Structure formats: C-alpha cells, structure tokens
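Q: Please design a sequence for this.
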C-alpha cells in the first residue's frame, strides 16, 4: 500500500511476462518452482500465474527500488548475472550529431530533457508490445504518473534534426495526436482526447504547453501528454528510433533514459548519443557514468555479521551487476552500473552482498549482550489509561486505521481535509488514514446498534497528523477516545469520566467552553493542559447520531496523550 500526502500515489510494481519469454532471455529452461525460488532469493516474488495456450503468464512483484527490472530484458539481465550465466559489461555508446535545442520557455513548465538514438533494433510485434508496456510501467511507477518524467518514442527516419524543445500557446498548437486522424489544438487535446483528459492535470494552469518540433517545423509531440500520429508513432517495422524523456526532476530524467538505453542495448540495439543544448550549457545523453564507491570488509561484517575474504565479496557483487575488485585485503572498489537507481549509500552495496550470499546462508547468532526487557514510560502511561477505563466498566475497542473522508469528516459535520490520501486504493471507501478516533468508534457502534444498551467503550490508538515541517510530512499521535450510548446519559456522565481519568493520571487541567461542530452547542468543553488544548468532551450533535444511525443520546471524549504528556512526535512510516 502506498500513502500519498495530498497527491496521487503509485501502483505496486508488478511485471507481467510469460515463462517462455523469461526462458528465452535467460537462455535456459527453468521451471516455475525454480523461478519462484530464484526470485525469492533475489528479493522478489512470483505473485501469481495463469496457464494460457500452453504457456504460463506470470505476475512478478519487483522490488520497488529496481525500476530497471520492470522490463523482461532488465529482469533477465539481473537474473543471468545472479546465476553466473553473464558478467557485468560496459555499455558502448557511439557519439552522434543528433541534438535537442532547449528553449528557455520550457523552464517554468518542464525544464529537462534527455534522449538516445537506437539503431538496428530487432523489432517485431512482441518486442513492440514489450516496449510500450515498459514505457507505461515506468510512467505509472518511477515517473510518478508522468509528473517527474515522461517517455516518447519516435521513428528516426521521419525526424529532421536538430529538434527544438520549446513551449507554445495551447491555442496555437495544432497536430494530429496518436490514434486520431483529426488535427486538434493543445487545448482540445486536453479536453477531448482520452490520453489528454487523463493527464490534463499535469499542464493545469500552464500558459504555454511543451512541444518537440523538428527542423521542418513538424510537431513531434506535446510532452508529457501525447505524441504526434504522423511523426511520433513506432510500429513493428521500426528498426531505428529516438527515445526521449522530459521531466520536472533532472535525476529522474537521467535515470529513466539510462534504464531505457540499456534495455535497448541488451535487446540488440546500437546506441548513439544525443546532445542537449540548454541556454546556458550543453551536455550529452544517455548518462553512462559508472559511480565509484568503496566498501570495506569491516563494514560488511558490522552490518551482516559475515566474515568473508575481499575476493569473495567482489565475486558476490559481480553477481549483482557491479564491476568490483579488491584493492587490498580489506577493501573492495565498486563501480555502479548506470541503470541502478537504488544505490545511495554503502549500506545499499552491502545489502546486495547479502542477496548474492543468500540470507538463508547467514547463520543467526544470539546477541552477546543480555538485558532484561521492560516497558517504556510512554507504554506505562498508556497501560494506566486502559486500566483506569476498564476499572470504570468500559470495554476496549480496536478499530481500523484506514478509513474514508466521509466517515472522518462529513458524518461528523466537519469540513473535509484531503491532506493524507491513500492513492490507487482498490476499495472505494478506503481513502485516508484516521485523523481522530471517535468516527471509527461510532462506525463500530453503528454496526452493533441493535445490541443491548448501554454501550460503554473506549480506544487507545494512534492517529496520523499532517505536518509539513517533518520529512515524512506527517506524524503519529496517540489518542484516547471514550463513547457512552444510553437513553439517560448526559454531559455530566462524560465529564465525570474525563475528570476521573485526568486525576488518576496526575494531570493538572482546565476546562473551557469551546465550539465543535460534532457536539451540541453549549454542551462541549475543551480540555487544556499548560494552556494548550489537548482534547474535548461533550454530547454529540443529533445530526451526527443520525448519520451513524444511532437513536439514543451519546456522549464522547477524545484526548491526545502526546499533548498531555509532551511526548515527542513519532514520524509516519510510508511504504
């Protein structure tokens, strides 16, 4: 599951490929069981498979940090080196005279571009479909829905160089977009073409739209939306082509062009560079720079508990695609291939040592230091809260953290806060993470509303609060919520519970009348500790009860234990 903070998320990285294609690329027959075991040892998983027309169609879950394996060629390359069939190789790129001329007009919209010319591609219908599949997979995942980067493919013989990367008024743009025979303006493409409608948000509020135009003023594409039907469409006969990537994030643009270039090279194509002429500098792509890092045997042993020789560590790293050699008995010099986007630190290199060595071969050891475990002060206070409420005759609930905007806000008479969004959720009613506990308790009681009254329940759990000052842009906060449903319950009853709990915790507090849309006006108070509001309690508003199909008076309380005790925020972990 991917959590998005106020923006669209990405899909799980699944590669769809046939077993026969994997066997062809590996150069050997491999059974489903052998492949499943190989993938598992590499850190991936055979998600599912289905037999169709005598072949197995596989869904392979790729480790999220390896977009280079989102193509069958990329996956096979990694597996061939892992099993020792191949060794790492340096990619050959011929210097070319092809050039992109970047106009300053794109700087505010989509400032970066990269490209590579690929010749003599052994194209057929199967490989064409594979290329288009990889293009869309990268768009959906690593490119963040084309926002950070987008990919264009063009038949080389139709292009006149140099190619200008510029921006134009959408009303002045006119060309035939892919899969249409009618010319459309840039504005019409975003309003009427299916692909334009889908990605229109990427050019929202832009006064000018990006364009690729060749030396004869033919419009090749309108990045990141769509290519031209006349000049930007490849087919099963296209053997020479241009691969282009534009984007808003230069490192992503460079990584994507490297991934695609190496994929075509491993598929049999010949690579030729493209010059990128920015207003203030000129560079060349693809960016085949082999980063050099050094890792010591001590670092490997400290992290893995693994004692090996430098020569053996170098062999293991070669199986993971690195150029590696021992510089002395204690140090290995590593060159990172240009398609590896996941190597940021020595720890990443050591992780690959473990994958090649195989985690199953690492013998577990007990820690040499033995200590007696104990509860933290935080946990002690949380347990005290539970004990106090259980002593008052309440039952503890455990509700779901994932929920909907309607439950968290609309049904509680609150303005909606779409700050934390669960993107691409398969269940329509799962859209966000709970902002507070009371709605989820009321949901549970609504499902059980025909049970015998009274209901006296509580929950002590985490909620998620948006805060942009943190790296994760959100943090966890522990709350306690209490609800009583009874024909005779009043404000006095919840006040007695709140005061008993706060006194039992030894907290000095103040109560002040506040306004809260979820509660009846005049029958809700805020709880203040050291001058700061830490929660509230009162009688729930009749409209709230009606929304939850509860027909009896209900009182409720919610307090932030973090704010009461001054605990440090715990950062939200995002997958």
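A: Design:
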């Amino acid at each position: 599951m991917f959590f998005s903070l106020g923006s669209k998320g990405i899909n799980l990285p699944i590669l769809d490929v046939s077993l026969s294609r994997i066997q062809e690329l590996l150069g050997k027959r491999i059974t489903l069981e052998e492949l499943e075991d190989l993938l598992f040892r590499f850190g991936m998983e055979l998600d599912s498979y289905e037999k169709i027309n005598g072949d197995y169609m596989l869904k392979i879950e790729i480790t999220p940090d390896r977009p280079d394996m989102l193509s069958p060629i990329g996956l096979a390359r990694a597996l061939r080196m892992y099993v020792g069939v191949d060794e790492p190789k340096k990619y050959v790129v011929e210097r070319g005279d092809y050039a992109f001329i970047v106009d300053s007009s794109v700087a505010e919209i989509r400032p970066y571009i990269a490209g590579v010319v690929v010749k003599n591609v052994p194209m057929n219908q199967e490989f064409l479909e594979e290329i288009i599949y990889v293009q869309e997979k990268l768009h959906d995942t690593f490119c963040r829905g084309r926002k950070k980067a987008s990919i264009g493919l063009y038949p080389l013989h139709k292009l006149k160089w140099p190619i200008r990367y510029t921006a134009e008024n959408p009303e002045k743009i006119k060309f035939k977009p892919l899969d249409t025979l009618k010319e459309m303006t840039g504005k019409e493409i975003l309003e009427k073409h299916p692909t334009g409608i889908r990605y229109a948000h990427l050019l929202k509020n832009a006064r000018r739209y990006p364009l690729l135009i060749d030396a004869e003023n033919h419009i090749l594409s309108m990045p990141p939306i769509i290519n031209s039907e006349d000049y930007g469409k490849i087919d099963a006969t296209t053997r020479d082509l241009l691969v282009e990537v534009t984007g808003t994030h230069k490192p992503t643009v460079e990584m994507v062009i490297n991934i695609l270039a190496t994929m075509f090279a491993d598929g049999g194509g010949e690579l030729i560079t493209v010059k990128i002429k920015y207003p203030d500098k000129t560079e060349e792509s693809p960016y085949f720079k082999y980063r050099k890092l050094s890792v010591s045997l001590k670092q490997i042993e400290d992290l893995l508990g693994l004692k090996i020789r430098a020569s053996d560590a170098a062999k293991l790293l070669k199986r993971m695609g690195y150029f590696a050699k021992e510089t002395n008995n204690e140090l290995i010099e590593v060159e990172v291939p240009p398609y590896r986007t996941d190597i940021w630190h020595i720890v990443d290199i050591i992780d690959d040592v473990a994958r090649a060595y195989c985690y199953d071969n690492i013998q577990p050891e007990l820690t040499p230091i033995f200590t007696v475990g104990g509860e933290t002060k935080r946990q002690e206070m949380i347990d005290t809260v539970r004990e106090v409420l259980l002593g008052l005759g309440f039952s503890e609930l455990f509700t779901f953290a994932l929920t909907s905007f309607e439950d968290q806000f609309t049904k509680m008479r609150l303005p909606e806060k779409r700050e934390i969004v669960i993107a691409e959720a398969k269940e329509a009613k799962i859209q966000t993470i709970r902002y507070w506990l009371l709605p989820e308790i009321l949901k549970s009681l609504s499902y059980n509303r025909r049970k015998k009254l009274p209901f006296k329940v509580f929950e002590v759990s985490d909620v998620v609060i948006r805060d942009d000052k943190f790296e994760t842009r959100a943090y966890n906060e522990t709350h306690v919520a209490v609800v009583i449903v009874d024909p005779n319950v009043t404000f006095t009853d919840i006040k007695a519970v709140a005061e008993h709990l706060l006194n039992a915790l030894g907290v000095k507090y103040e109560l002040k009348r506040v306004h809260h849309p979820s509660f009846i006006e005049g029958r809700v108070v805020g709880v203040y500790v050291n001058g700061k509001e830490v929660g509230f309690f009162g009688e729930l508003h009749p409209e709230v009860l009606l929304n939850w199909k509860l027909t009896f008076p209900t009182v409720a309380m919610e307090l932030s234990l973090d704010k009461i005790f001054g605990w440090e925020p715990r950062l939200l972990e995002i997958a």
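Q: Thanks. Anything notable?
A: DSSP finds 16 helices and 30 strands in the chain. The first strand starts at residue 3 and ends at 4.
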